[in-house]
## 1
Amino acid sequence: MAELTVAAYLPTPLSFPLNIQTVTTSAVVFTYDLDAGTYTLAGSTTVIGGAPYRSRVVLIEQISGRVIREVWSDAAGNYAFTGIAGGRKYTVAAFDHNGLYRAVIADNLLPTP
């Protein structure tokens, strides 16, 4: 496990564990241990017309703007962020790695236990 140190705009550096996992697309998935919990936020990514579409999906804590996790949706367009904290609102942004579509953002999302 690597350690990430954040020093920008802080009087003292803030360090926390950072898990890095490689997925089949050779992309990197970042898991920040600051947001551990037992809740899940899941959904799907589709294109206009409803066809599933594989996308990079980013989970953002809404109040702080902090990126919590990044995952790829599967071939059916499904994604899930598990083990996150409850009692907060999140924003999810899906990005097309092929550049054919614009990003899609959903906010005010609440995870389920």
## 2
Amino acid sequence: MRALKFQCVTCYDVLTRPVVRAAHVHADASSWAEGLRPAVQAEWLCDCYRLRVHDDAHYGAGYLHGPSHPAATPTSVLQDFFVFCKLAVANRLVPRDWQWGVFLQHASEALPYA
């Protein structure tokens, strides 16, 4: 699969649509990122997505999505990844000073190998 591109109106629309935040989320859910460089934070959160895809495929009754779906395209992987990102933001897992540029650059290199 070729590298993913994150500059499109559709991707922006997916990221900016409102999401309802889960009521049970701890107020300090982004504390995992404290003390980590932005590049390490980006790698960590991308790995969380990749592990989620893997776990859903193997332990989620064969739920295939993102790069594990047999008919995956760069666009479908991108859309699935952005759903993950929106949920992470909505549930306050992403720190306020999150560096999206660093994160999306890492994701564009890592996700094709998920």
## 3
Amino acid sequence: MTNYIVQQQSPQAQQYNVQLDGDSYTASIYWLAVAQRFYISIYDSAGDIVLNTALISSNYDIDILAGYFNSVMYYNAGDTILQVLP
């Protein structure tokens, strides 16, 4: 399990190197003002986008990656933690 702290007041996209299903990806989290919510984009090592979705906050029970990866990713806005389980 790896935890990443999400800076909620950051005006710039935040990038993290994450391991998903044994491969390296870049996760980019950004605020979309029009939608008034965070989004996450996952890029492969070639820089191609693999997934773009709303960053849904939960009590570590809603898998953001469900249906895309076997790895699990949770986000808790109260703790500002993005959690990745391989």
## 4
Amino acid sequence: MSESNFEKKFLPKTKLGKLSVILMLTFFVFFFLGFVSTNLYRGVPAGNSILADVKNRPFLAIFIILSLFSAVVSMIIGIIAVIKKERFFLVYFAILIGFLITFFCWVKFFRIKK
């Protein structure tokens, strides 16, 4: 049973690579669901903390937290997969997305208040 040309070029070879790509896709799904759920909470004020947001706007907060978590885990698993010789371009894309999300959260958390 030979691999098709599509499988050779466009599918990750390792289980870690496949898991990294799946988690990256779940990031986009959860982020989209969080974006769509903003329509449910028109007129509901944002909380001053994550716990306040979970209380006031649970679907939005949970979807966004899950999307951030899946992006960071996808990045970590992607880095491990690349170290173990995975060369699929979507694994590198998952690492990039995870890094950007981590960087954004880091900057947001440690921003300097005037």
